[in-house]
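Summary for the lay section of the report: proteins are chains of building blocks that fold into shapes. Here we show the chain for Helix-turn-helix domain-containing protein and then a coded description of the shape we predicted for it.
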Amino acid sequence: MPWRELKPMDEKVLFIADYLRELYSFTVLCERFGISRKTGYKWVERYRHAGLEGLDEQSRRPHKQAFTTPYVIREYILKLRRD
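The coded shape description reads as follows.
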């Protein structure tokens, strides 16, 4: 019989459910789920802010590129390359 594996989202939901029941101290709860307290607090804060949707995996990609070349300069460079 294979081990019962939980998806990351299922584990987060169970963590939040146990957190809301207040059966364990936060430290013990995090130990039971094998996560750091920092991660536990992050999950709780995401849940408070956005509900269950906040527990979904979030992209680590930056929202915008910090150092993009302005359009005018790009066009000038492309023009120089064509000539």
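Put simply, here is one thing we learned. Residues 1-57 form one domain.
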